[in-house]
Amino acid sequence: MSSFEEAETEETVTCLHMTFYHPCQEDKMVFRCLNFCKREQVRADEMAKFGRDSNICHYNLMDTRVSRIQFSLQFYRKLNSSEFCFEIKNMSKKTKLIVDQTELGYLNKIDLPWKCIICFGDYQILAEIQEGESMDYFETHLHLAEVPILQERCLPSLQPTPENGILSSSFPSQGKSPIEIDENES
């Protein structure tokens, strides 16, 4: 047998791609401590922490409005499954964390969807999970967005825009079925 045939099978690694946006990045350089465009390995038994305290968090956000630990990500394998997931937990007592449309208060946690937008304060983070097989570690791959992620992705708004272009601030039609109106009616 050749050495190629005897070599270990290469394992794929789960990678969490995260694209960061803040409107004041150019002025304040809030992401200056993040390592963009280079994959980093994180041991499976470690929690990935994001916040301003460099003694606790590996991913530092240089902004006094960010909590010492803003949020954490835990890598895990689902019970009786080979599927790997991430759990996101809000670690901030002052700021709510929004994952897609789910609002998380302090110490609330949920499974991170395969593709979602995480928001807190003026921060927007697009998170995308690339599946892998390794149980020992996962990778993070950070990117910097030039434009707001919510704007760039053209995500559907929670409320349809009426033809007259005027949006009401409340959701009066939520939970009701649509009503068809003839365009000639006033």
Description:
The protein is mainly beta. It has a single domain, classed as Tumour Suppressor Smad4, CATH 2.60.200. The chain is 6% helix and 34% strand. It is globular, with a radius of gyration of 21 Å. The relative contact order is 0.22. It holds the Pfam family FHA.
- The assigned structural class equals mainly beta
Count all strands and give the number. Answer: 12
Q: What string, H for helix and E for strand, traces the elements in order? A: HEHEEEEEEEEEEEH
Q: What proportion of the residues form beta strands (DSSP E)?
A: 25-35%
Radius of gyration: 21 Å
CATH fold-level topology: Tumour Suppressor Smad4
Overall tally of domains: 1
The biggest sheet, with number of strands, parallel, antiparallel or mixed sense and barrel status, is: 7 strands, mixed
Order of strands, widest sheet: 2-12-1-11-10-7-8
Ends distance = 82 Å
* Number of alpha- plus pi-helical segments: 3
Shape summary: globular
Main location: cytoplasm
Pfam families: FHA
Family: Belongs to the TIFA family.
Biased composition (Polar residues): 163-176
Explain the layout of strands and helices.
Elements: H1 3-6, E1 15-21, H2 25-28, E2 40-43, E3 47-51, E4 59-60, E5 71-77, E6 84-90, E7 97-99, E8 102-104, E9 109-111, E10 115-120, E11 123-130, E12 137-144, H3 149-152
Parallel strand pairs: 1-12, 3-4
Antiparallel strand pairs: 1-11, 2-12, 3-5, 5-6, 6-9, 7-8, 7-10, 10-11
